[in-house]
Design goal:
By secondary structure, the chain is α+β, with helices and mostly antiparallel strands. The protein is about 40% helix and about 20% strand. The structure holds alpha-D-galactopyranose.
Length: about 400
Amino acid sequence: MKNNLHAEYRKIFNKEAENAYFSPGRVNLIGEHIDYNGGLVMPCAITFGTYVLASVNDEGVFRFRSLNFDDKLDIPLQQGYSKTKEHWYNYPLGIIDYFLKQHNELKGLDLLFYGDIPISSGLSSSASIEVVTAYMLNDLFECGYSKLELVQLSKEVENEFIGVNCGIMDQFAVAFGEKDKALMLNCDSLEYKAVDSNLGEYCLAIINTNKPRKLAESKYNERVQECQAALKALQQELDIQNLCDIDAATFRKYQHLIEDTTVLKRATHVIEENDRVKQAAEALAAHDLNEFGRLMYASHDSLKNLYEVSGKELDAIAEYGKTNPDVAGARMTGAGFGGCGIALVKQNGFDRFSKGMIEYYTAKIGYAPSVYSSSIGDGVGVLKELANS
Ligand code: GLA
């Protein structure tokens, strides 16, 4: 499909698309549910993502079309849009709304979107479509935002317009991702390093649970609130801005300040996970993939038992990993409640892994997962290679 985008555009709009852009999705290697607590995360951009083809029109209308969804929208250029139901076009509409509120001079656009990120898979299709739209508007209308500003405004749209109180990891990863690199991102200072994701004899597998994600957004916002409650309790005695400002040893000294046992479990995950990311970075730098894998399993167990965002489908992925000697580690990735798991698998054992995973998961869950071998790709940009197809 992605090779026919220009032809599809012509069919729909009866004219040529003058511009084309791409933003990837992401996986997070480790550091889960800590971006909104000012922690360290280690995401990378993948080669699946969102494409948008665009041409300016003279009618002052935004036309949204998608090759993935039937619903479409034609809406005049005006101040002040709001989210309607669960339509896919809420994401680009929210970005346009933001640009207009900031008094950017936009014109009408005929837009065709296409995504090859599996839908509802937790690989950040929403950050991908937000960032690609923001990048496109900035490029077409010379609005002058830096890439970091595009990331920040996309996150703000997700928080305010869409209503999910996500952290900055996904938007950052899909914008700043680099081929064959993982990003070590400090979500408080926004300083980052692109580190070699040299996996040696291993490769990264993505396993989609194919479980429809329900209630994910409300559960996500609930976790954010629980972390805020933990922070407030600790602030009675500690001068901190984020949960991740303290390490596990300091936390043990002050955890008695948190009375609610659920809130205590959430905070324990956050603080220990942040420490694990630091250890994982050292393991990666030392090419110690076994240690990296051990930390992935520990991360999964914590997300299952303390943060309670896993589920039998994601657990089955980690469980199967432990039975296969070609797997160094496995865990859920992203928000949880369904979505995807990842595994570090020996390249020459990948086919066995894929077959074994499908068998194990299907026997346990009742339907099959999808297994992909993933490459790490670049972040958002102009799409040159499709420009003339
Ligand atoms: C979602 C959010 C991110 C992050 C992850 C969990 O992907 O969008 O900000 O919180 O969940 O690590």
